[in-house]
Write a structure and sequence with these properties.
317 residues, mainly alpha, 15 helices
């Protein structure tokens, strides 16, 4: 995504980079299904852990960007701040910004609004017994998509088939938990097939927003399924790759302002230098934010219930 948004400062020709969102949605469905299966099956616990994992860091970046956009409207020209826009952004509610586009203050944060729909739906499904949960999840998100087809404004504000990419990830997570993914030696081939599909569409110049959940969602599922199958065998991810994964959410939050800083400070030409520097700055900023802010914020937020219980106990005593 960092490379995709860097190219948006140039000619926007690397449009296939937007498919990273589709991969991200499938990964999210996979992870949420597997972690719920490992012990977050209580709806309240699930929602609290998702909120404390996602929200504090996002709120901090959103507020910082709102302040930066107010101080310098040219820093990220696509950002226009209003009170309504800021409040709805912080609440993870999909809406149109002051420019009429369906983006929160942090433009890349639109994906988190889709995530919020998925999380709330998944939490509701957790009230049901385990056997029908996947069917209920698929049906519930399918109903949301159907509503979007019947109400075009809602379609543009997250009620569309991109939500089914979470279902694809959950299906992979379910099969992974049951040990029913393809054998590990097939994993690299599935990943290569998915990447090859993306490359073929990019080289052919073939894209369709209407059919995006199928055209990009299917290769994304192949990549995630292949990676999960590979991990189930002898393949072990290098430590550096694991650390990169741990910091991936922080990189996601930081990459747009990092790219903007490089664009304003270094310039966007030559393109190869700008894109390389923007990617390096995004990763560096993400790692720094992950260590200095994201991890402490998560720890502090998750410690709130314990502190409240201790306070209540002291008050009662």
């Amino acid at each position: 995504m960092a490379v995709f948004h860097a190219f948006q400062w140039l000619d926007d020709q690397f449009w296939i980079g937007a498919a990273g969102v589709d991969v991200f949605f499938v990964i999210s469905g996979f992870i949420i299904w597997t972690i719920a299966a490992r012990g977050e099956a209580a709806p309240g616990t699930f929602l609290w852990r998702r909120l404390t994992r996602v929200a504090p860091a996002y709120w901090l970046i959103t507020l910082a960007l709102a302040a930066a956009a107010t101080a310098d409207p040219l820093f990220l020209p696509q950002i226009s701040v209003s009170s309504r826009h800021l409040i709805l952004s912080l609440a993870f509610i999909q809406h149109t910004d002051p420019n009429g586009l369906a983006f929160p203050v942090l433009p890349a944060g639109w994906t988190l609004n889709y995530e919020a729909i998925f999380y709330v739906t998944f939490a509701a499904v957790l009230f049901a017994p385990a056997p029908p949960r996947f069917a209920l999840l698929a049906a519930a998100l399918g109903v949301v998509c159907l509503f979007g087809w019947l109400d075009p404004p809602a379609y543009g504000l997250a009620a569309n088939p991109m939500l089914l990419e979470f279902v694809a990830g959950a299906w992979l997570g379910r099969r992974y938990a049951l040990g029913r993914l393809p054998r590990s030696r097939a994993g690299p081939a599935l990943v290569a097939l998915g990447l090859g599909a993306f490359a073929a569409m990019f080289l052919a110049g073939f894209r369709s927003e209407l059919w995006r959940p199928l055209l990009w969602g299917a290769p994304a599922a192949l990549i995630v399924g292949g990676a999960a199958a590979s991990e189930g065998g002898r393949f072990k991810a290098p430590a550096a790759l694991v650390e990169l994964g741990d910091a991936s959410y922080a990189i996601y939050l930081c990459h747009m302002p990092a790219v903007a800083i490089v664009a304003h400070g270094l310039g966007v030409h030559p393109a190869w230098l700008f894109v390389t520097a923007a990617l390096a700055a995004s990763i560096a900023a993400g790692f720094l934010f992950h260590l200095a802010a994201e991890k402490p914020l998560i720890a502090a937020a998750r410690g709130v219930p314990g502190r409240l219980r201790a306070l209540a106990a002291r008050s009662a005593a």
